[in-house]
Amino acid sequence: MKTRFVCVGALALLLFAVSLLAQTTPAGQTNPQAPFRAGSPALLGPPTPTGATPRLPNGKPDLAGVWSGGGPVGDLADGLAKGDTIPLLPEAKRVMDARQSKDDPEANCLPTGIPRIAPYPWRIVQTPTHIFFLFEGNIHSYRQIFMDGRKHPDDPDPTWYGHSIGKWEDDTLVVDTVGFNDKFWFDFRGHPHTEKLHTIERYTRTDLGHLENKVTIDDPGAYSRPFTVTFTARLRPNEELMEYICQENNQDVKHLTGPARRP
Amino acid sequence: MKVHMALPLTVALFAISATTTLAHHSFASEYDADKSVELKGVVTRVEWTNPHARFYVDVKDENGQVTNWNLELASPNVLVRQGWKRTSLQVGDQVTVNAAMAKDGSSMANARTVVLADGRRVFAGSGSTSGNQ
With contacts defined as CB-CB under 8 Å, which chain B residues touch A16? Predict the structure, then answer.
């Protein structure tokens, strides 16, 4: 019975796929009736594993692994709690409304900053003194989080990833970051920020396959109050990072048109 | 001898049915998802590069005029994870491509499916948006 159900489901999926493939037109002709949606195969792959949160010998959660997601991609507002809104200041709204898709730093092969995440895998590496986030894309870069108890510098030079210090609060890794530049966008929509940005990320590995990132954004230069967005990364078992040098052959920018918008 | 991989059915289904986009730029800012085009022609060049693999196809119109189309795929990493190789598509291959056209009117499109003359499917689901999806 169960087998029959699976077979029927597979057949339905196949028919659906074939019906989409059939929506083609003669050579060189466009067909407005044939909607096309790009897939996201990089975020597919094997199912997210289930199981208990793995732990280090010292009892703290082991966050190591290759992950997907865990931050905004298309729209920062996707991470808001129900009923909450993004408290944009008028000037920040003007900046956002004027942004053009071609100017998105990510489209120009520049870093995502925080908390934006690219739709590519990334790895967490834990050591006693540092935690590293290694990003496959965009760009092939890394974050370093100091776990040795140091404080932020008094006047850090503004950078794409800022200065990050981390500590454990029970089973949650709390990462406090200041010293950002104002160059990166929070998402494809172009949500802005200033150099006053201060982020507090709270990472909780809720089970084997999921890593929740509850991040508070505090930027009195762009937002009228601190607000919190939550995104969840999924473990990609048996995955390795691969090289991704975005600058190699980036032809897209000159073809991007119109205002900043989600994908 | 050319080696072409058969696309696993499950991957094909997922790639076609998924609605999220994946790239380093906004897909909708570059391509019109509702403006599909079918192109038949000969592959003239393959670029196995980031942020997107690309291939170029000479397409002859009804008047015999040839246009070289620039067709975008996902990144090589995404393609490799789907099971493709840099040799899956080669110069000289006769292909039929279903793609989403660029909004700026250029001879550029985002390839949705690529089928060889003998019916073998070599690429599908470019997933090229987003974000660098």
Answer: 13, 16-17
